[in-house]
Amino acid sequence: MPLIIVRNDITKMSVDAIVNAANQSLLGGGGVDGCIHRVAGLELLRECQALGGCQTGDAKITGAYRLPCKYVIHTVGPIWNGGQCGEREKLASCYRTSLALAKANGCETVAFPLISSGIYGYPKDQALRVAVDTISEFLAENDMTVYLVIFCRAAFEIGNELFADIAAYIDDHYVDEHTDLCREQMRRIDIFENHKLSAYADALKAASGLDEILSHLDAGFSETLLKLIDRSGKKDAEIYKKANVDRKLFSKIRNNPDYKPSKSTALAFAIALELSLSEARDLIARAGYALSPCSKFDVIVEYFIIRGDYDIFKINEALFAFDQSLLGASLQ
After folding, report:
1. H or E element, residue 253
2. What's the first-to-final CA gap in the chain, in angstroms?
3. Are 272 and 229 within 8 A, CB to CB?
4. How far is 119 from 246, CA to CA, in rounded Å?
5. What residues form DSSP beta bridges with 62?
């Protein structure tokens, strides 16, 4: 765990293994394949020459040589022929076999390009869906951090209908942070929070003794989260994996009642628990956050919650497409 979409040059990723979108000869080519061979050097080519090629959907592993990783996993994606020639299954097989090789070689971090989405012509939005579905399926049963590396914004696409719908929702609900309306909204939030603090202070004044004072404290984020997990009837691992959160980070939250997560982590758990909008607001408030119309990040997450769409990877695809930070993902 988890799956992280990043904009970077895959040859610069300091991970255990990077995946090369190769051709069947494994002897280098254009695009990502050519870049990896150029950076790795002739030693990579010599090792590839001894492998005897690779079939579509399969994968083979080599050393990385001059690359900042331990291994290169070479996989051959399908050429797009309209989608009626088993392209989806072959593309999914690229990710599955590559991840299996990474696991067999003790890799904890792996970086993928968006396989087949370049000169092989696989539609980018569909290639992205296959990548995310297959990787997330693997991560549900395995602990590994997987990066989906996008070289530039133009190489990344979500479905046109989804993009347009989110864009329309943003237009209707997003208020620029510099406008008077947004400042008024934030002022109202501040007044509400100050009112809560005033009521809490009055309760403390009326209380006598430490035990009574402590009894007026609301449950914090950690305590509330654990209660919500118990209420869901699911195991801890099911929830933190669904939240796209690392096991180590979840342990910090579980073992420290006063732990304050980032806003993206707090919202990731709200998504994993499939909370309603009011429940999500309450959960993140216990970590000191609120949803604001002045934040595109908040508005996009709200869009999915209102529609009952709790697929965190789909949400992160949308956040990435709109140049926002992602839910869960990073360690704290």
Report:
1. helix 247-255
2. 14
3. no
4. 35
5. 72
**Count of Cβ atoms closer than 10 Å to residue 83 Cβ:** 12
The encoded tokens of residue 44 equal 């990579």
User: If you compute the radius of gyration of the chain from its CA atoms, what whole number of angstroms results?
Assistant: 23
Structure tokens at 314: 């789909």
Distances (CA, A) of 298 to 141, 163, 284: 30, 16, 12
Residue in this structure with the two tokens 């939240």, named with its chain if needed: 243
With beta carbons less than 8 A apart as the criterion, state whether 13 and 147 touch.
Answer: yes
Cα 213 to Cα 147, 204, 238, 256: the distances in Å are 47, 6, 36, 21
Contacts of 88 (CB under 8 A, 6+ apart): 126, 130
Burial level of 234, CB count in 10 A (0-12/13-18/19+)?
middle
- Exposure on the CB side of residue 226, measured as CA atoms within 13 A: 14
How many Å apart are CA 99 and CA 115, to the nearest integer? Answer: 13
pLDDT tens per residue across span 170-210: 999 887 655 665 666 555 555 555 555 555 556 555 555 54
What is the separation of C-alpha 27 from the centre of its chain, rounded to a whole number of angstroms?
33
- β strands within the chain, DSSP E: 3-7, 17-22, 59-63, 71-76, 109-112, 145-150
- Torsion angle of C-alpha atoms 276, 278, 282, 285, degrees rounded to 10: 110
- Tens of pLDDT, residue by residue over 122-159, are 999 999 999 999 999 999 999 999 999 988 666 677 87
Please state whether beta strands 59-63 and 71-76 pair in parallel, antiparallel, or not at all (unpaired): antiparallel
DSSP classification of residue 56:
B
Comparing CA positions, the residue from 166, 137, 164, 173 lying closest to residue 304 is 166
